[in-house]
């Protein structure tokens, strides 16, 4: 049952990411501008990236085009790696907007870790041996798997939010003492 869970988690991550980037268009646009991209590339990228995430995320459900989606997401992860490298070389704090405006997450080494985890998941989806996938599990099991993947994503978002809250709290406590 690992394959359907990873499939559902991958779908959840990329569909959620695409939706939140579209909903927080201005902050995602600011990320492009902060990275030094031209206004034309910014206009194209702020629409294209989330739409591609949504399309590839949903395409994982279709056996006929799933491999196209998985390979496409692999290339998207390589682009994200390059963008992370570019952001770290700029040497200023830039919000990555990986999940749109839901998290105040900045580019950093942790961004590489997240990309690496998604990369490993993608490789498992492409090369892993599986006889069962999300499209052919029984409906009740499918619901459990989808809800579990949504729960994992929500726990991740909550943990990151709490870590940012704690970091900000310590920062303000330190400033208050000086």
Automatic annotation (TrEMBL):
InterPro entries in UniProt: Methylamine_util_MauE
Subcellular location per the Swiss-Prot or TrEMBL entry: Membrane
GO CC annotation terms, alphabetical: membrane
Coiled-coil ranges from the UniProt annotation: none
All residue ranges annotated as the Methylamine utilisation protein MauE domain in the record: 4-121
Topological category with respect to the lipid bilayer: Multi-pass membrane protein
Domain of life per record: Bacteria
GO biological process, one term: methylamine metabolic process
Record's keyword terms, sorted: Membrane, Transmembrane, Transmembrane helix
Pfam families: MauE
Regions that span the bilayer: 6-28, 40-61, 67-88, 109-126, 146-165
Name of the molecule in the record: Methylamine utilisation protein MauE domain-containing protein
Organism: Paenibacillus sp. SYP-B3998
